[in-house]
């Protein structure tokens, strides 16, 4: 029996990268999964690959109507909702002086406002309780030059997560955040976990001196989504190879 048997999960940004890894792993563990993304072609390919326990819905996470639609699809097609993984997000590298205000606001809409809307709509559909996993970043724990907007968005997710954990406790809904470090995805250039790390590369300073894999992040998300984490809420779970551990980095 899978660790998510009889669970219904909604995953955003699920067409590729970490999101697609989460979708695959959840289906493997017995969940029925509805996932969304703006990348329609890639989303439909993944749905075809995984079969009947998986449904793709084109989904713009900044749209409140889009959230209403995808949550309704989950409840009508699969009969309810137990898990939300707020995974969708974007990354831009720009200094404060070089970034325009419109780009800053757009990044906050995609990375933060979307998760807040998702919490609102998904929690209403979780009639028997549930688990919500918000994907943040190590840049939600420490800042970074050239990523002020991204870091601001990921810090904000921590506050939303903790507040939601308190508000939704009475409905037996747990809310936690996950903070990945440098993970091999299209967002950071598809660097492989097996790529040799030059001794002068910044990654060589990590206690675990390599990129993380999407499967490793999915293992943590799976734990938080499952009943195995039944005493975990309002928590921040770091998976970064030791990047934020201390001065060694």
Across the major sheet, the strand order is 3-2-1-4-5-6-7
Number of helices: 6
The overall pLDDT average reads 94
| Radius of gyration, whole Å | 17 Å
Largest sheet: 7 strands, parallel
Could you explain how this protein is built, in words?
This protein is α/β, with parallel strands linked by helices. The chain has a single domain (8-237), classed as NAD(P)-binding Rossmann-like Domain (Rossmann fold), CATH 3.40.50. 39% of the residues lie in helices and 15% in strands. The protein has six helices and seven strands. It has helices at 17-28, 40-50, 64-78, 101-125, 148-168, 214-225; strands at residues 8-12, 32-37, 54-58, 83-86, 130-135, 173-180, 236-239. Strands 3-2-1-4-5-6-7 form a seven-stranded parallel sheet, with helices on both faces. α1 crosses α6 (214-225), α3 (64-78) runs parallel beside α4 and α4 (101-125) runs parallel beside α5 (148-168).
Sequence-ordered SSE layout with sheet pairings:
Elements lengths: L7 E5 L4 H12 L3 E6 L2 H11 L3 E5 L5 H15 L4 E4 L14 H25 L4 E6 L12 H21 L4 E8 L33 H12 L10 E4 L10
Parallel strand pairs: 1-2, 1-4, 2-3, 4-5, 5-6, 6-7
Helix pairs in contact: 1-6, 3-4, 4-5
Key structural traits:
15% strand, 249 residues, Rossmann fold
Briefly summarize what is shown.
The chain is 39% helix and 15% strand. It has helices at 17-28, 40-50, 64-78, 101-125, 148-168, 214-225, and strands at 8-12, 32-37, 54-58, 83-86, 130-135, 173-180, 236-239.
């Amino acid at each position: 029996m899978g660790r998510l048997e009889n669970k219904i999960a909604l995953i955003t940004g699920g067409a590729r990268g970490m999101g697609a890894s989460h979708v695959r792993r959840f289906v493997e563990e017995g969940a029925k999964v509805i996932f969304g993304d703006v990348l329609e072609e890639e989303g439909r390919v993944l749905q075809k690959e995984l079969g009947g326990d998986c449904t793709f819905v084109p989904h713009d996470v900044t749209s409140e109507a889009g959230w209403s639609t995808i949550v309704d699809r989950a409840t009508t097609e699969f009969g309810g909702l137990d898990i939300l993984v707020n995974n969708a997000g974007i990354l831009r590298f720009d200094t404060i002086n070089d970034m325009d205000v419109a780009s800053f606001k757009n990044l906050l809409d995609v990375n933060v406002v979307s998760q807040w809307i998702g919490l609102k709509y998904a929690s209403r559909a979780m009639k028997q309780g549930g688990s919500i996993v918000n994907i943040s970043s190590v840049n939600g724990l420490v800042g970074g030059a050239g990523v002020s907007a991204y870091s601001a968005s990921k810090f904000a997710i921590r506050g939303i997560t903790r507040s939601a954990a308190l508000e939704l406790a009475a409905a037996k809904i747990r809310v936690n955040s996950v903070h990945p470090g440098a993970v091999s995805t299209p967002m950071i250039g598809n660097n492989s976990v097996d790529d040799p790390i030059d001794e002068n590369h910044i990654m060589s300073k990590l206690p675990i001196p390599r990129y993380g894999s999407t499967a490793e992040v999915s293992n943590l998300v799976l734990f938080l989504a499952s009943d195995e984490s039944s005493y975990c809420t309002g928590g921040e779970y770091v998976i970064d190879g030791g990047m934020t551990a201390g001065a060694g980095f």
